[in-house]
Amino acid sequence: MTIPIITALNDTFRKTLLGGKILLTSGITAFPEKQQQAILAQVQSFSNFTPDNDPYGEHDFGGFDYHGSRIFWKIDYYDLNLTYRSEHPEDPTQTVRVLTVMLAEEY
Questions:
Q1: Which of 17, 21, 5, 6 is nearest to 60 (CA)?
Q2: Are 53 and 72 in contact, with CB atoms under 8 Å apart?
Q3: Which of 29, 38, 60, 67 would you call most buried, defined as having the most Cβ atoms within 10 angstroms of its Cβ?
Q4: How many other β-carbons are positioned within 10 Å of the β-carbon of residue 60?
């Protein structure tokens, strides 16, 4: 089963911000840099996975409140050219993880 591998890869990427690409939407980049760093720190430390936000157990989505704004983050799996969805998200040699951090209204 590949879910535990995907979960471990997602957790490592999210916690370290290494091994993939990070995309901050315009709503997030509108915050001052120190607040952007605080938002990323909350993404890194996120652990409130539930059946509602993590139905497949991949740890690829989360949300939290930050100073009155609802923040969402998600991890998507792309091929090495960043063109198509990866057919093998369990294989880091075939997959680029992209972490997108956004305001909920940008979802």
A1: 6
A2: no
A3: 60
A4: 24
pLDDT digits (tens, 9 = 90+) for 69-82: 999 999 999 999 99
Phi, then psi, of 81 in degrees rounded to 5: -90, 0
Q: Which residue has the tokens 């923040």?
A: 71
d(CA 22, CA 101): 8
Other CB atoms within 10 A of residue 65 CB: 10
Among 2, 25, 1, which Cα is nearest to 86's? 2
Considering the chain, what is the average pLDDT of its residues?
97
Q: Determine how β-strand 20-24 pairs with β-strand 96-103.
A: parallel
What is the pLDDT confidence band of residue 1, given thresholds at 50, 70 and 90?
A: low
pTM higher than the cut 0.90? yes
| Residue pair 66/45 in contact by the 8 Å Cβ criterion | no
